[in-house]
Amino acid sequence: MAGDDGGKGADDGGAFLPPGIEAAWGLRERPSKGPKPGLTLDRIVGAAVSLASAEGLDAVSMGRVAKELGVSPMSLYRYVSAKSELYVLMQEAATGAPPEIFPPGTGWREAMGAWAWAMREVYHRNLWMLRVPVFGPPATPHMVAWWEKALVAMADTRLDEGAKISVTLLVAGFVKNEALMTADLAAAMAAGDDRPEEVLARYGRTLRRLADPEKYPAVGRLLDSGVLDVADEPEAEFRFGLDRILDGVAVLVDGSAS
What we know:
With about 260 residues, the chain is an all-alpha fold. It contains eleven helices and no strands. The longest helix has about 30 residues, at about 160-190. Residues about 1-15 have low confidence and may be disordered.
């Protein structure tokens, strides 16, 4: 209803904040009585992150986290309203504040490159984060701080603010997708106990049997070239893709400058 802020005061500008966002910014009142002594939001989130790191995101449930903490599931709901809120807080905790990855005066390309590599490291350190559903644009303190870093990286360009956000989303999307694909391939190879070279060689032999070179001439030329016979270094594809994206951004930056 117009004029009804749902119990929110003027401090939030009348805008509704999801519970996870409120909790991340410390805007929610903490329970003063009732739960087991020593139970805190930080302990709950920490236990959930440890569980996801050890067993994957699917292992995280309110019941399982409560069991890890030695409390009843209902006691968690005094701090966390739902699993979706817990996911937001887990991601916020695991991401952490962005490091000082480039000094003032660093060129936009080097700075954005450093930002992308730092974000990639966060994902590879917390592969479960790649499975967290997207609930909305970044709105928690650490995620906003990462956006701030990216915008600062492009501050000396003549791109407008909309273009800067679009570049940030483009680079962030590439980083997450590459980390997801790399993690899935690594897991598949690990499950077979084979070296990457052996997996590639087997794939090449299989493809040669299945793909008629007269029907798939480009695939035939790829196989004949031998590029699939040797595994790339783990970071090669990321470096190649990031460089090509930044090449495209450079065209945009140069165009805005002229």
